[in-house]
Each structure stands twice: as structure tokens, then as C-alpha cells.
Design a protein that fits this description.
2 copies of one chain form a homodimer. By secondary structure, chain A is α/β, with parallel strands linked by helices. In chain A, 44% of the residues lie in helices and 18% in strands. The structure holds a DNA duplex.
DNA sequence: CAGCCTGACGTTAACGTTAACGCAAATTCC
DNA sequence: GGAATTTGCGTTAACGTTAACGTCAGGCTG
């Protein structure tokens, strides 16, 4: 492993000069600067991150900007779980998580949260953002200083200089839902799609993927139902009532958000089992019992926990370990049913299994007397 | 953050003594030993892994004991991909991967590979094992020195003191396959299950899960077909021929290993599309085109790449970062179909995106000189 | 009792990087 | 043209841990 000292020797300067050149701290003549750069490239010098962080003793703070955990049926707890897991795993590293939440229905609240992070700029070294409010996010992104890396989770604002974006292709997930629905209803019948106003691009894409994929099926009719989220808590419960009343022939319902349980509740009360097949999204708590007993046949999961986990991991890879990171992560579209729910349910398997953690203890206690010998 | 120096001050000794006490290097009186231990516990002292590894400058070597990558339709390439990805990501760490492969049909070859690792004991600091040959594995495991941590992937040997085991529940994956099959054949018909001798516990469990889950379906008949792997290359192609001949009413085939493509090939040649529904396992290369064009309806994936990736990660967490690791990781049972294949195909999304990232270059070329020396 | 060993410590030089500090020489300013 | 600043570099003390190496007292052997 080539060190900074060797670089200095080859360049005929001191390590101080090399360090200044490395970090553009100035006070280096142009000629020397270039000579050092050349030698570094030649030797493929990589700074030793251990030594670097030992010397710096810097605390990295990663701000996490997501909706209030309770929103969307406590959906937003899930990414936070993954984030906490990442923090746990990265305990030896000097990192700190700074959660900042906003009301996903209030632009004002989003801006306030964003300002809070940017104002105390000295505090945040990296950002994980769930840009649910797309318009507001766009203007906010422009305000992020270029030196501050940020990654998107859940969805993303296009044409930004984000470090990376971690999401699932909503269109394709809708298409997958369509395929499953086609299977469930045996290729014919009437399928209702539940929607909500105000519209959400992300959700709309799921619906588009769904309807497009079924368009060529001549025996399948698709009908769209829409509800206003402001009317009440159980929007989709009442929407399902309307579906039953207006379309008694319906044999499939597609719920493109996490509120499938509301529809399932109504089905359980009013419809014999197996008559209407329900496909929903997201492994939020209220959905689980319905998936288990079959009122929801499939849930499509976008692994929000993995998204949060990876968000932090990418920042660490980039900032601490100086590794290149992928500009984009397309998470797999998971199909969850009663049979494989257990493996998915505890968010990530590692966290689930880790709960019983085990004492730290002396497993693999170091054999005595082994030491690197130095010249 | 509390340092070793502070511990020393509180205990009224020097840092050398504390270090000896910490690593049981002897030469510390019992009284002092205990005093230090108490203070460490009180202060919740955690050694700084950065400083530690900077000082040690130790290369960790992780041996990977899996079948030849080409076997099982090149299935065993997949865990290796995950392992390489982990190595790539952990580049700043002083770790080295040492792949050792064996012929999964030869116990002798397995033992030879195992001995190779144990003999040069000084070389391996951790082990990732795929114990495909269960009997042989069992005796091999007993020979592993207690100080050498190992993790299982793919399956595991019960009642061992492994650091962790990473696998998928084969029984439950079979049950999931049954559920999907039930859906595909509309709840009635004849389903053929392909098996192979010599038997494999792991595969048998999948079959058990499959047949158990369909037992209560009165309109579904399950028939078992068995082939000898030694007969020829295209075992399952010919087995499928037998199925068609002996059970012309068959409308579903379950292939509990990665050879679904052989069956699919025959179906494509002899049967109209959509008449016989095929469910297989594993995203090996030959399976992919058949999944895409529908001759294979579902593939169940156990994410072999993630298994390899996590295997290395766990060893790093344990050995380098001194973090507690879960004793068991139950990986999710993934359902892959034409619609979500893309997201799964590149093994892990991160690797897929990262492929362009940079050349493999001089990784693995051990730096000369500084090497840990043991007594 | 000299010589040797050993138990129980303390001291110190690494490991590689960082940034503050120092110090000439060159440049700028009034 | 002298003072003040800037430029370009070298030196050095950290950061926390590790293990080789000293030291010193006490015990044992012949």
C-alpha cells in the first residue's frame, strides 16, 4: 500500500505539501501541484481511510428528510427502521442520524423542515430525502449547496445532481400487479382501481402500469374510482362501498397505495371470501392480518426499510470510505403473499434475527502474541 | 469517547497493561486484571476500530468454500458475484477473498478443499461455507478450530457453533411455489414434481413444502418423477419427455432446482403455450429467456448473490468492526416473473449499476512487507 | 551467592493522515 | 523603500491502539 510519505519522497517535497495538494488547501505552487497529481495517479495512491478518520476525528451528521412516520398508515416508520439499522451496524463509525420530518400534505411544513437543515448547514454532512411533495422538493433541491451530497429514497426529482437515487419503478410495479390480478381473476372480469385526490405522480405511475398491462386483455374491464383524502379517515373503506354498489360484478380491486387494509376490511364484512381479489401495496402493520387470512391476496413491497438502510450506506460509502457509488438503485419489486410474509415482515431479515442479538462475548477471542513485525 | 488511556488512568496502571488485559496477553496480575475489567465495563469502553486496524495493519483473509461455479447450471457463480461485490465495497478494509471450490458430487473433493484451508490455517481468518454435501460437511465442521469463525450460506449444518447462517427456508419456499401453482392451474389438474437422485435434503424440503401445501386441494393430483443425474446432461429434458408420455393430462410442472430451463425447452418444442404451467428455481442464465417469454411462469429465487454478500459482510462486522451479528438470517423468498425480472436479474441492483464503475485493477495483490506474524 | 528466570508492570515507536505552526523568500502596499 | 502581507514549503504533534522492548524486584538453582 502506497502512502502519502512515499508520494512526498517521489515528488521531492514534504508530506505537508502533499496533503495540501490533496485537499486543495492552497499554498502549493502550480508546478508542484501538477507533479504531485501525476505521481498520485501513477502510483494509484488511495488514502488510508482509517488513518484519515483517526486523525480527523470528525463526526458526520446525516439528515433524514421524510414525512412524519405516522403518515400513510405508519408507512414512514419503515424507512426509519432501515436507517436505524444502518446506524447500528455502522456504530464504529463516527456518524449521527438527524431525522427531520414533515407533514406530507403541507408544503409549508416541508420547506420549514428543509430550511432547518440548510440553516444549520454546519451540522449536516449528507442528506437522505424522500421527495414526496414533488413541486416543493424541486425548489428545495436547488437550494442545497453543491458540496452537500444527498440521496433520494422512495422517489426522486429528475435532473438533479444527487449522489444517488434509490427507488422502485412504479410503472413496472403496477404492471406486475396487473399480471398477478390477471392470474387471480382467471383472465376475465371487472377490476376496480382505487385512486385518491390530490393526485400523486408516483402513485399515478403505478396505476398507469397496471391499466396499460391489462389493456390488451379483452375480457377484463377496468373501472377507476376516486376519493378525496380529506373527506375522512377511512376514505378507501367508503370507496369500496361505492365500488360494491356501483359495480356488483367486480371481481378484483387494485389499491395502489398502502390503504389496502381499508378495502379488505369492508370485503371481509360484506363479501364471501374469494369472490373479490385484492392486491395492495406495502407491508404496513394494518395490512398484515388481511394478507395472512387471504383478504388481501398480494402485497407489492418496495422495501422501504432497505431504501433507508441503503441511503445511509451510500453516504458512508461516499463520504467515509471514498468509494464510488451507483447513481441509481432500482430496488426489486417484491411480491408478498401469506406464504412468504414471515421472511419479509420483520423489515430486513438481519434486523429481525438480530433482535435476539447475543452477548458480545469472547467469540473468536484473539490468539495471543500476534503482531505485525515492522522494519 | 473513552480511550484506553483514560481506562489506564482510572485503574492506576499504564496503557500497556490495559492492552495486555484487554487481549489476554498475560503478564497482568489477577487483581489488576479484574480492576481493569470492572472499569472497562463501567465506562462502556469500546476500542476504536480505526486506530486498532491502523496499528495492526493486518490483512484478513476470508476463505470461501463453495461448489465449482459452473455446477448446477452455473448457479454457484451467483454467490461469488455477491462476494466480489462485498469485497469491492469493502475495499478500504484490509481484506482478501480466497475462493476454494469443490465438486459438489465428490466427497473426496470436498475434503481436499477443506483440508487445503485448514492446513494453511495461518492464512484464513474467516470462512464462508456452502455445506452442500451435508454428511461430509458435518465431519469437516468438527475439524474447524474454535477460534476460526465461519458462516453458512445456502444451507447449514445444525448444532454447530457457526457465527451465523444465511439461508432460505426451503420448505416454505416450496409451499409458496404450491400456492402459485394452484393459482396458475386454477385449482385443478395434475402437477408433476421433478426430482433427482442422489437425493438432496435441501431440495427434498422444497418438494415436501410443495406437496404438503397442495395436499388439501382435492382437485389437484401430484405425481412425482425421478431421474438419475448421472444419465446425461439434459436429465430434466428427458424427464419431461417421460412426463408428457406418461401423464398427458398434466397441466403443471414443479422443478425444485435450477434446471427448469431443460423442462421449458421441451415444452416449447412440444406443447402449445399456456397448457402446462412451469415453476422453477433460481435466476441462472439459461432460465432467463424462458421466464421472459412465459414458458417458465415463476422462478423462486433465494438471492444467492445476497447470501454471498452478507456472508462476507457478517465476517467483517464480527472480526473487523467487533459488532454483534445475528445468529441466523432468513432471506426473503423472492417470486420472480417476467415483469420484475429486470430488477432482480443483475443480481443485486447495486452491482448492476456499479458495473461501469471502474476497472477491477490491482486488488488482491498482497502488499509486501508488513504482514501479521503469529507465534 | 552469582547467575538466571519470570512475573508484573511501564515506555515507546510505530501505523498513515491531518492541520497548525514556523520560516524564509517573494510580492504588494502606502 | 521599509513594512506588511502572501506564497511555498518543511516540521511536528496529535488521533487511539498495538506489541516489542526495558526495567526491576523477587524467586530459584547449583
Amino acid at each position: 500500500m502506497v502512502t502519502i510519505r512515499e508520494i512526498a519522497r517521489k515528488a521531492g517535497v514534504s508530506i505537508g505539501t502533499v496533503d495540501r495538494a490533496l485537499h486543495n488547501r492552497g499554498r502549493v505552487s502550480k508546478a508542484t501541484q501538477e507533479r504531485i497529481a501525476r505521481i498520485i495517479a501513477e502510483c494509484r495512491y488511495k488514502p488510508n481511510v482509517f488513518a484519515s478518520h483517526l486523525s480527523l476525528a470528525k463526526q458526520y451528521t446525516f439528515a433524514v428528510l421524510t414525512p412524519e412516520p405516522e403518515q400513510d398508515g405508519r408507512y414512514w416508520e419503515l424507512p426509519m427502521r432501515g436507517i436505524r439499522k444502518a446506524a447500528e451496524e455502522l456504530k464504529p463509525y463516527p456518524i449521527r442520524i438527524w431525522p427531520v420530518h414533515y407533514d406530507k400534505y403541507s408544503e409549508a411544513s416541508f420547506f420549514k423542515a428543509g430550511e432547518k437543515i440548510l440553516k444549520s448547514r454546519s451540522e449536516a454532512d449528507g442528506l437522505v430525502i424522500a421527495p414526496v411533495l414533488s413541486a416543493a422538493s424541486e425548489t428545495f433541491i436547488r437550494r442545497i449547496p453543491p458540496a452537500l451530497p444527498y440521496v433520494f429514497i422512495d422517489s426522486y426529482v429528475p435532473d438533479t445532481s444527487c449522489l444517488s437515487r434509490i427507488a422502485q419503478n412504479p410503472y413496472r410495479s403496477g404492471a406486475l400487479g396487473a399480471r398477478l390480478m390477471d392470474l387471480l381473476i382467471g383472465g376475465k372480469g371487472t377490476v376496480a382501481v382505487c385512486r385518491m385526490v390530490p393526485r400523486d405522480y408516483h402513485i399515478d405511475d403505478r396505476v398507469n402500469g397496471f391499466t396499460e398491462a391489462l389493456r390488451f386483455r379483452k375480457d377484463v374491464e377496468i373501472v377507476s374510482f376516486e376519493a378525496d383524502r380529506k373527506t375522512d379517515e377511512a376514505v378507501f373503506y367508503h370507496l369500496a362501498e361505492r365500488i360494491l354498489a356501483e359495480r356488483p360484478s367486480c371481481n378484483g380491486i387494485f389499491v395502489p397505495n398502502s390503504l389496502g387494509h381499508q378495502v379488505a376490511q369492508l370485503l371481509k364484512e360484506r363479501v364471501p371470501p374469494g369472490r373479490i381479489h385484492l392486491i395492495g401495496y406495502d407491508l404496513v402493520e394494518p395490512n398484515l392480518p388481511f394478507l395472512k387470512d387471504g383478504w388481501i391476496r398480494f402485497l407489492i413491497s418496495q422495501r422501504p426499510d432497505v431504501q433507508g438502510y441503503q441511503g445511509i450506506q451510500l453516504l458512508v460509502q461516499h463520504l467515509l470510505l471514498k468509494n464510488p457509488v451507483p447513481a441509481e438503485m432500482n430496488l426489486p419489486i417484491d411480491i408478498v403473499t401469506a406464504e412468504n410474509l414471515d421472511e419479509h415482515a420483520g423489515t430486513d431479515p438481519q434486523e429481525r434475527a438480530g433482535r435476539s442479538a447475543e452477548a458480545v462475548e469472547a467469540r473468536g477471542a484473539r490468539p495471543a502474541g500476534r503482531r505485525a513485525v515492522r522494519k
